[in-house]
Fold:
Amino acid sequence: MEQAYDETFEKIDFRANPLKKGEYESCRFKNCDLSEADLAEVRFIGCDFISCNLSLAKFKKTSFQDVKFKDCKMLGLRFEYCDQFNLSFGFDNCILNHSSFYQVKLKKTSFKNAQLQECDFTGSDLSNALLNNCDLARSTFENTILEKADLRTAYNYVIDPELNRVKKARFSLSGVPGLLGRYDIEIDT
Structure:
């Protein structure tokens, strides 16, 4: 099992040279291609992924603890297969379209300037999460906990307050149509 601490991995194509199973702590991955990589049972602790492609990577029991993703392409990921113990990460300017967070605990998770189109948040816990300037077009929210979540600058969402827990969640006036969609009413601004 690989043990890496405070290392930088730059411009590596992990499709050609697969990432070794093991634990990576305080490491930086810059401009790496991890698309379709098998990251099963790999532990990332306090790592940063910058300008990486992780699209369609496999996350079976993958551990992400205090991990930051910045400027990453992350299409079609299945976060529900990650190790849920101490799962914590943040996303800044990432493309996460077609990803699934089905029943994932995302408490206090920060999504900034993220594309979250057609994502599945069914049964997930987004309490106290920040969705700052995020595009949530065609994303699914059902039995989702959004208590105290901040969606004031999020857009293109449709969230049914009768099917989700939204107590003390924060929305902007421009987001109200996304909360009233089921009622088939017209709102003039």
The radius of gyration is 17 Å. The chain is about 0% helix and 20% strand. The first helix runs from residue 176 to 179.
